[in-house]
Specification:
There is one protein chain. Helices cover about 75% and strands about 0% of the residues. It is mainly alpha-helical and about 70 residues long.
Length: about 70
Amino acid sequence: MNTVRINVSLSRTTYEELAEEVEPRGRSRFISGAIREALRERQNRRLAEEYREAAREIKRADADLKGTIADGIR
């Protein structure tokens, strides 16, 4: 795995909770996993909003087409 070393600041409380829950040799893996999960959730929320916007656009287009079709039938 190709890794990059970064420097991150945490509140003392967050650090103490991390230190209590995760052994020193597993903290990088834990933090990396937490970041991946947070990014995945963020991407999923963005994708869901894009789908909602596409659905709204489809409904608008459908309404416009229904009006056009109705005009042509009369």
